[in-house]
Write a structure and sequence with these properties.
The protein has two domains: about 160 residues, no CATH class; about 90 residues, no CATH class. It has a two-stranded antiparallel sheet with strand order 1-2. The longest helix has about 35 residues. Helix content is about 80%, strand content about 0%. The N and C termini lie far apart (about 55 Å). The protein contains nine helices and two strands. Strand 1 and strand 2 form a beta hairpin. It is an all-alpha fold and about 260 residues long.
Length: about 260
């Protein structure tokens, strides 16, 4: 039973990612990898689906399922929003521009969508498709499939979280390098020593600028990926970085040509 639950989570994590990616791709008319992680995983849907299955599977009335789904998944979305903001100091979605929102974390429009998704999940997708599909898989096969999926999933979580947690540090590192470059340039201007010493200091400045440029590009690409997945994402350090270093976009385009 535990193996099946793990597999259900993996399926709904993938289906949630697929649903959001298709929806966003249609809206923006380009391919979008919607989600926090690099791979095709959107854990908020995996956990949300299991919560619904465990709490509401015994309900038969579609209206009650709709209302219960609205309430439960809206609370879940709010809780996840708060957790992400506390951990990563970033607001990954913001519904402040949508009517009937609460602190920008949830809104009535999305709550209605959650209600509809809940009915479809509990009346059609889970009992008629997913359960029948998973029941056809031998337990031994399911065990190895779960191992493969969760190895990839956990690795993705570790890589993604570590990179995102280091964004602020990378931005601070850029500020520190900028300060060092200014100090070195000032030293060079005031240096009255021999040519060799000046060349050595100029070399140090050049290397610092190259290091700064590499960090800028990596940080920029990571923030852009997050911005594509979460267009309404709000983070003061990231916004300042994007505003200050927007010219990186032109440099990246020139390199691709």
């Amino acid at each position: 039973m535990h193996l099946k639950i793990l597999f259900y989570f993996a399926i709904y994590t993938f289906l949630g990612w697929l649903m959001e990616s298709i929806y966003r791709s249609i809206i923006e008319k380009k391919l979008i990898n919607s989600g926090f992680l690099y791979g095709p995983f959107c854990p908020i849907y995996g956990f949300g689906s299991l919560i619904m299955i465990f709490l509401l599977s015994n309900l038969n009335n579609p209206i009650i399922i709709f209302l219960a789904s609205m309430i439960i998944l809206t609370i879940w979305e709010y809780v996840v929003g708060v957790i992400l903001e506390k951990v990563f100091k970033t607001k990954y979605w913001d519904y402040s521009h949508v009517r009937f929102n609460l602190n920008g974390r949830i809104c009535l429009q999305n709550s209605i969508y959650w209600g509809i998704i809940g009915v479809i999940l509990l009346k059609v997708v889970h009992p008629l498709i997913i359960v029948n599909l998973v029941d056809q898989i031998p337990i031994k096969t399911l065990f190895y499939v779960d191992i493969v999926i969760y190895t990839i999933f956990i690795a993705d979580v570790i890589i993604t979280v570590s990179k995102i947690l280091f964004i602020d540090k990378k931005i601070q590192q850029l500020h520190d390098i900028s300060k060092m470059i200014k100090e070195k340039i000032a030293e060079l201007k005031n240096d009255k020593s021999e040519k060799e010493n000046k060349e050595e200091k100029q070399k140090v400045i050049t290397n610092l600028k190259r290091k700064q440029e590499r960090i800028k590009i990596r940080t920029y690409r990571l923030i852009i990926r997050l911005k594509k997945a979460f267009p309404t994402m709000q983070s003061e350090p990231m916004n300042k970085f994007m505003k200050k270093y927007d010219q990186i976009k032109k440099k990246l385009k020139n390199k691709e040509k």
